[in-house]
What we know:
Elements: H1 24-44, H2 47-57
Amino acid sequence: xxxxxxxxxxxxxxxxxxxxxxxxxxxxxxxxxxxxxxxxxxxxxxxxxxxxxxxxxx
Length: 58
């Protein structure tokens, strides 16, 4: 374990290119991936989790 408080273990953060360097195809692919990921997450959440999320949102 590293004692440096700013140390981030490799692989814990998703690396992402800056948007200026992306082609429209790459942006579309990333957006589609995000939408699919969110859809799966919402499908997996329980009623209690959903109520909590909506309560915190408003």
